[in-house]
């Protein structure tokens, strides 16, 4: 298959929520994947910057409650040290990083992938 492979989707995600009458709720999310010979983290980071710019949310150099920034995170689905929460106005709204080789193997992918997932519910 020719590289790079770039995927992008905006869709509703159903989450369990015992606080609701039906036991579930929907969130609108954006997901993007870049798969190439190298991880291409800068591609999905650039996409994050563009999305936030379109939503009129600025980068927070001070990492405070104004704007958005990245904060290191640990998630076994991601390569160690290559995962971050996307924090906007003090709230975690997503995750960005490079997928762990074990995850790639389960999907029979032989090239590294960088991914971005954002909850955009608060913006729509």
Average pLDDT taken over every residue: 94
Question: Could you give the distance between the termini?
Answer: 36 Å
Order of helices and strands: EEHEEEHE
CATH architecture: 2-Layer Sandwich
Helical content band: 10-25%
Low-confidence segments, given as residue ranges, are none
Work out the number of β strands: 6
Count of DSSP H/I helices = 2
Q: Main β-sheet: number of strands, strand sense, barrel status?
A: 6 strands, antiparallel
Give the overall silhouette: globular
Q: Which CATH first-tier class would you pick?
A: Alpha Beta
As for the number of domains, it is: 1
Tell me the radius of gyration: 15 Å
Q: Percent of residues in beta strands? A: over 45%
Structural class: alpha+beta
CATH homology superfamily name: Bira Bifunctional Protein, Domain 2
What's the CATH topology label? BirA Bifunctional Protein, domain 2
Give the strand order of the largest sheet, numbering strands 1, 2, ... along the chain. 1-2-6-5-4-3
InterPro entries: aa-tRNA-synth_II/BPL/LPL, Phe-tRNA-ligase_IIc_bsu, PheRS_beta_core
GO molecular function: phenylalanine-tRNA ligase activity
Pfam family, one: tRNA_synthFbeta
Domain Phenylalanyl tRNA synthetase beta chain core: 5-120
Structure description:
One of its GO terms (molecular function) is phenylalanine-tRNA ligase activity. One of its GO terms (cellular component) is phenylalanine-tRNA ligase complex. It comes from Phyllotreta striolata (Striped flea beetle). By secondary structure, the protein is α+β, with helices and mostly antiparallel strands. It has one domain: 2-Layer Sandwich (BirA Bifunctional Protein, domain 2). The protein has helices at 41-54, 101-106, and strands spanning 5-16, 24-35, 68-72, 78-88, 91-99, 113-119. A 6-stranded antiparallel sheet has the order 1-2-6-5-4-3. The longest helix is centred in the middle third of the chain and has 14 residues, at 41-54. The N and C termini lie far apart (36 Å).
